[in-house]
Amino acid sequence: MAIVNVQDANFGETIKEGVVLADFWAPWCGPCKMIAPVLEELSQKLGESVTIAKINVDDNPETAGQYGVMSIPTLKLFKDGKDVGTFVGFRPLADLEALVQPHL
């Protein structure tokens, strides 16, 4: 599935089914800009099997606080609404694939 932008209001609905990799980011964050093309590549590679949900922490502090996001980028993997993995900071494509693949 394509990369989708989500907000506090629809985050819970977005993660409740399937495999969702949530990217907690902000426009001023350098490492967030670096990981964006890696997420794009992951999306192309895995196609419909995973949703990548980008959530801007500046605009959506409620969700960031709910999941304890203290540093960005934070990537949280959800399967059917359950938090099954977390990475903080920039990670290469191989690391992200290793996080996601067991849950597909």
From TrEMBL:
Keywords: Disulfide bond, Electron transport, Redox-active center, Transport. CDD domains: TRX_family (cd02947). The keyword Protease does not apply. PANTHER family: GEO12009P1. It comes from Paenibacillus allorhizosphaerae. NCBIfam families: thioredoxin. Residues 1-104 form the Thioredoxin domain. Belongs to the thioredoxin family. InterPro entries: Thioredoxin, Thioredoxin_CS, Thioredoxin_domain. It comes from the Bacteria. This is Thioredoxin.
